[in-house]
Design brief:
The chain contains 19 helices and 3 strands. By secondary structure, it is mainly alpha-helical.
Length: 530
Amino acid sequence: MSSTVEPLLPAVAPRPRLDARIDAWRSRIVAVPATSWVAPLLVTLLAGILRFWNVGHPHAIVFDETYYVKDAWSQWNLGYAATWPDEADQRFAAGETDIYTREPSFAVHPPLGKYLIGAGMALFGPTSSFGWRFAVALAGTLTVLVLYLIAWQLTRSVAFSTVAGGLLAIDGLAIVMSRVAILDILLTFFVLLSVWFALLDRRRHLDRLARAMLRRDAAGRVPWWGAVLWWRPWLFAAGIAGGAACGVKWSGAWVLAALGLYAVVSDALARRRLGVFFWPADAVRQGAVSFVLLVPGAVLVYLSSWIGWLTTDGGYGRHAVDGTPAQGFWSWVPLPLQNLWHYHESIYTATAEITSSHPYASPAWQWPLLLRPTSMYVGNTADGTDGCASARGCIEILYSMPNPLLWWLGVIAVLWLAVHGARTRDWRAGIVLVGVAATYVPWLFYPSRTIFQFYTVLTLPFMVLALTFALRALWGSGRVETPRRIAGRRGVLGILALIVALSVFWYPLWAAISVPWEFYWLHNWLRGWV
């Protein structure tokens, strides 16, 4: 009889030592250059100037400010959004800021964004249109800085990060949404903050995972299972920022879910590369930990945004189910939270059924084509008075129009990045495409709902990143100056120069600067514009 014993499991192929892999990962963690603070400072300063300059003009409630400015002020004082009398917009702008009633208003968005707008009003006074828009202008400025930091995490390139931040700083959609007191730029800020935190977590987590595997390898232990890591503060921070995004608008939940999936998938692939034998099951174990770190904090932050509604009695639906509380398993839930759940059901039903016509409505399938941007405000001067140099009169307009060249190139760059990322398996392409998908694709499932092109301000930063990656590829690398590389670099410089020139051309229509009608008509490139 043979003494050979058959193994219970097939032999595992010898693994390369982990030292080389860890050295490769650590080589990517480069110390920040001492002078690198200058570039983000200048980009953020430029963004602040373009957003804060004359942000109080016009001194009028424009577009959807009719909901958010007044709701913000009543919520700041009462703890919940209240109704206002007829012609309240004009009276509020004229200084009658205390004419809100005690009757609740049916607000279809969570309270956090309105608290931030209300904080600016409390700081500078409710009669100040600068105060109405202070929070959004600040959030829009900081959004540019956070995009720079995201680009830095992706590439460790000051030039790349400066181009990405600079393009967002001078884009018209980002500028206008930072000059109008509505919620979308606040949502964008918190979403980008959560993405930045997720990238910080990814770099730190993968390094710690590799070091844990190295210790096991040095001890001669068979890597059937990898380490389960609980200390991931940046992932927890991503959940906090994601919860704040949801507290501004529910669409932040799509990004939070996408980041959670990205964290699980990237961890699973890392375990596979490190040679963990049971890497799928191992990734599930770590995924459960990631869920605990990411989601409960987000939920807590979201619920905290409703603290005014929960601790007062006057909010809409505050006592809707007090007489008929839930029975059975859900009977343990406090009545205020049952009422809040009922309110959320009402919000979802109401928003999903918004199908009223609007002259600036644009379904999501149109957004990549840029067919119908949204005009937020129009003011006319009938003749050549008031300093207007044109006999035909002048016009002031706040037009949430992205830089058209940047936008269309960004759409093309997203498609290119999808192909490039699939061919190279570059994780950086993955996070950008996840951002695009999470902020755009859900809207395609509401083809009949009344929605607007300016919602794409949430997608815009990821399009800018995709375009910057494309420009970087066109620029090339290496020191040998070939004719192809020279042509590519000239092309990049030419594209950037054209984008800057178009931003200068369009900026008067992004800042409600009075311009002659002749200049205004030069911007009517397509039938659906302005």
